[in-house]
Every structure is written in C-alpha cells, then in structure tokens.
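Re: the request from the purification team.
They wanted to know what the chain is likely to look like in 3D before they choose a buffer screen. I agreed to run a prediction and write the result into the notebook, where they can find it.
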Amino acid sequence: MTYQELIQSFKKKIYLPVYLLMGENDYYIDKVTDYIQDNFFENEGIKDFNLEIVYGKDTNVSEIVSLAKQFPMMSDYRVLIVKEAQGLERTISDLLPYVQNPQKQTILVLCYKYKNLDKRTVLYKTIDKSGGVFESPKVYDNQVPKYVKEIVAEKKFIISDYTAELIAAHIGTDLSRIENEIIKLKNIIKEGEEISPKLVEEYIGISREFNEFELINAIWARDASKAFQIIQYFESNPKNYPNVKTLPIIYNGFIKLMQYHFAKEKRNLKAYNIFNAEAEKAFYSAVQFYTLDRLKAVIHLLKVYDLKSKGYEGYDIDDHELLKELTIKIITCNFR
C-alpha cells in the first residue's frame, strides 16, 4: 500500500480495522497520522469523544486492547492511534489475539517508526492479510530530488529539476525540513508559480553561486580559482557545508562521469542531472579529461579523504583545508 493509496482510501471512507505504518522514513508515517487526525472526523465534538492517541513508551498492550474494544459515541467509528509503537517492540506480539478478532468499529493505527516490524511474525502476516501495511523505507541521497518535486507538487507549486537538486543537496534527506522550507514560500508566491533558484537563495538560504553543484562544475572544468572561492564560502558557513555532506555529492558527481563512459545512450544529459548550459560544458570537459583510469583514482582519493575527514587514524585537519587539498589534487590529477 503506497502513501497515495492509503490517503485515497481514507478520502473514500474505505477503512480497515488495523493499520501498521512502519519504516526508517518517519516523514510519511507522520503525514498519514496527521491526515487521519485532521480529517477523519468532520465534527470536532465527535472527534473529542472518538479519537484516542497514546504513545508506545507510556502504554502497554493490555491498555491498547482495552481502548480498542470500546465502542464509538455518536459516530460509526472510533480511532485509536499508537504513536512511537516501536516502544512496544518486546511485547507488541501480544496484540495478535486482538488483531485476529478486532473491534469492527475501531480503527487501530500503529506507528512503528525508524524500523520495520519483523515480517516473519504472525502479527505482521495477520495485519498484512486483514488490515493495511504501509512501509516507509529509508530515503537515500539520490532519491531526495524526486521527493522535493513531490512535496512541491503537493503544495501546488512548480519547480525545475535543477532547483530540486539544489534544495536536495543543501538540506539532505530530512523531508520534514524540506516541507517546512517549501511551506514558507506560501506567503511569497501563489499556487501554480515556480520556485526559482533566486527564491531558494533568498528565502531558504542556498546560494545560487556558491553551492555543491557549482563546486562540482568548477572541479569538472578544472577551474581552481572558482573552486576555491566556493570553498571559502563554505568555510564561512561551516554548519551548512560540512565535508560529511559535501564529499558524497562530489563522489556522486564523479560516479556520473563513470556511468557516462559506460553508457550506450549518451545524448540525454538529464539522466545525469545536467540541466543547464554551464553544467553541460563542464560535464563534457570532464568526460574528455577524466579517463576511466583517472576516474578510478579520483574515486579512491575521495574515499581516502572521506576517512581523513572522519578522523581516521588520528588524522586531524580543518574540514575546509582538507577540501581544498582534495580539490587541487583532483584538478591536477595528483593522486599521491
């Protein structure tokens, strides 16, 4: 069951007796829970009588079963939401008898965050068969632009691939923070209008000129002067541009070059997240200069500097000094 399918079923008033919302990505678990809380009951008075919220760390299975077996008041259903249900990990299997024979007028929602309920258990299999399971998997860096575009579309704005990449690179996998930043723009632009790089720079605080993508372009173009200007900007904003975030983005940039070398179809640069003329020029320059042997050496070098930035073997040097050293080695192909 996908997020969209789950929300649509509630909009159509098609309910199941038990829902299990689980996974490493808590963003969509919270989205589903918030939707149920805000929209299930149209009347606030009826909602007060029939919506119950408990937390896994503060409750137990016996109390949950007792609450779930209660009947609704002046409503066809009551809703019981168990937030942070992973706090019941050791005893949650005791819910099995209830799940096998649930109270038909209660909708039980289990929010099992940051992990999955063991799919081999009878409890999971029973919920999967007679209830609803929504799995919210971990979000990886390369997936974030897609989620940015989905969030933007949900808020009824427009965004280019480049701007989505810009936001993704700056904020990372924290989808809740991305949504909050997009919500801020509701007071700035109207529905149907575009979130431009200029708006992102002004209201989200991401520089159009000095960001991770411009650093990659400078390295690809072997423009040491521009690369160092960008790193100096990073140095003045260390909380926003730590190496732990910057190095993986550079690494992905060189992986794209390697993928291009092996690709049969080389015309569609959008597949490599190349969206403007400047990036295209830098990309083609890099493809010509960085042969496969050089790319292998760069990728090895990036792994070494990633370890150095994490203090491996007692290595201790300022983050951005380390980034400058790495950048000049990549540009000059000094792989020693």
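For the purification team: Residues 212-332 form a domain with the Zinc Finger, Delta Prime; domain 3 fold (CATH 1.20.272.10).
Please add any questions underneath this entry.
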